[in-house]
Amino acid sequence: MRNLLFIGHFLVASAWSVAQEPTRVFEPYKPVPQSVDTPATAPPGQITVTIDPRIDATVTRYTELKHPQRGYRVQIFLGDRKTAEDHKRTFLQKYPDVPAYMSFLAPNFRLRVGDLRTRLEAERLLRDLKTLYPGSYIVPDEIEMPRLPEPPK
User: Fold this and answer.
1) Is residue 121 part of a domain?
2) What is the pTM of this model?
């Protein structure tokens, strides 16, 4: 009996709370009517832009500087200079589109390839290079962003 009273009280309380919910009405957007005198589009005109020459100089100087970004490269060799140069030459003959970089870390030279923004891109390149360079691995490095093509003049 007690359980029935509790359930009945719960149903009455929940029905009361449902009845007290505010009603929400959807009103679609109605555009404001334009008068007959106002044209729908603005008439064509001229815009004159005056640019300070210092801004052009700053943009030119900014594009000439290097802006390294954190990314990944695949290291394919670590050893003496002559062998590193040979590996670089053969690599660039097989993959002319992939940049190769030699750096000196005493007493060895290391050869790293690619300018890869994500780890996934680096994994793909590593998978392609594993057959030719079985000891290669991915390293985080500062990469150079690709140059954008010059706009036609």
Assistant:
1) yes
2) 0.57
